[in-house]
């Protein structure tokens, strides 16, 4: 893939495959496709400091998810962060929001820093920071919109989650802003370290630990998740369609 149009074509294939197979990884895929569409629109409208560079970043960023997905489909090894997200997608016991956050956790906390550094290979990393922040503002807007409208696919989530207020739980406190700040810091570390493989292994270990907290929260929150899960839609394809609509409305209202 060399263009954002090629990325969108591949994302369309993944979304349709997930829809046909009722794969819950489609929850992340369908939102990420909307993010990619929004970035493509931004590039066409020349919203970024360097639009050609932003296309390269988008391609490299998306490629990490697509490559991980294809490795998983081929039953080959990928990063532990993505492996946990893919394995969780085969279970009916997790909430829609858990599946979304697991994908976002792997893609932003691990992939984004790597893709940003690769985009700036041989160059000063700091010159891309403004555009890095813009792509994250789009992600943040979308995630906040989905969280704010989660009742569309999880009717009693908003009623029961306040009972867990004050709990130090990853699911409750997941923050795109914190993920963005961590991704930028990691991009700097990765950019300067000649041992890229070590950087990926070390970072992946830490991000996989966060994924485990998303998958297995504390006892009280796990109890609430079971109750909430009973009321969530059971049709993956229907949930994907609703998430797509929420994403469209959110990004159009930026």
Question: What's the overall average pLDDT, rounded?
Answer: 90
**DSSP helix count?**
12
Largest sheet: none
E-strand count: 0
Range of helix content: over 70%
How big a fraction of the residues is strand? under 5%
Contiguous uncertain segments of 5+ residues: none
Q: What structural category arises from helix and sheet content?
A: mainly alpha
H/E element string?
HHHHHHHHHHHH
Radius of gyration over C-alpha positions, nearest whole angstrom: 18 Å
Explain this structure to me?
This protein has 254 residues and is mainly α. Helices cover 74% and strands 0% of the residues. It has 12 helices and no strands. The protein has helices at residues 4-21, 25-44, 51-73, 80-88, 96-119, 129-148, 157-160, 170-173, 176-192, 196-215, 219-231, 236-252. The mean pLDDT is 90.
Describe the structure concisely:
The protein is an all-alpha fold and 254 residues long. The chain is built from twelve helices and no strands. Helices cover 74% and strands 0% of the residues.
């Amino acid at each position: 893939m060399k263009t954002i149009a090629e990325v969108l074509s591949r994302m369309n294939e993944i979304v349709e495959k997930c829809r046909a197979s009722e794969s819950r990884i489609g929850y992340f895929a369908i939102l990420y496709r909307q993010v990619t569409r929004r970035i493509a629109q931004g590039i066409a409208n020349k919203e970024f400091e360097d639009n050609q560079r932003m296309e390269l970043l988008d391609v490299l960023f998306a490629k990490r998810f697509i490559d991980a997905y294809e490795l998983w489909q081929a039953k080959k090894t990928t990063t532990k962060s993505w492996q946990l997200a893919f394995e969780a997608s085969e279970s009916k016991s997790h909430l829609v929001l858990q599946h979304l956050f697991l994908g976002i956790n792997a893609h932003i906390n691990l992939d984004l820093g790597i893709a940003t550094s690769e985009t700036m290979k041989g160059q000063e990393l700091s010159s891309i920071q403004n555009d890095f922040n813009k792509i994250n503002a789009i992600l943040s807007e979308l995630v906040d919109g989905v969280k704010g409208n989660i009742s569309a696919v999880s009717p009693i989530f908003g009623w029961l989650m306040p009972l867990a207020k004050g709990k130090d739980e990853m699911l409750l406190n997941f923050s795109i802003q914190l993920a963005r700040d961590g991704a930028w810091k990691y991009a700097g570390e990765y950019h300067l370290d000649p041992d890229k493989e070590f950087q990926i292994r070390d970072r992946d270990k830490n991000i996989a630990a966060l994924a485990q907290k998303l998958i297995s929260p504390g006892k009280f929150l796990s109890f609430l998740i079971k109750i909430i899960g009973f009321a969530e839609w059971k049709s993956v394809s229907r949930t994907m369609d609703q998430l797509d609509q929420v994403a469209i409305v959110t990004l159009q209202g930026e």
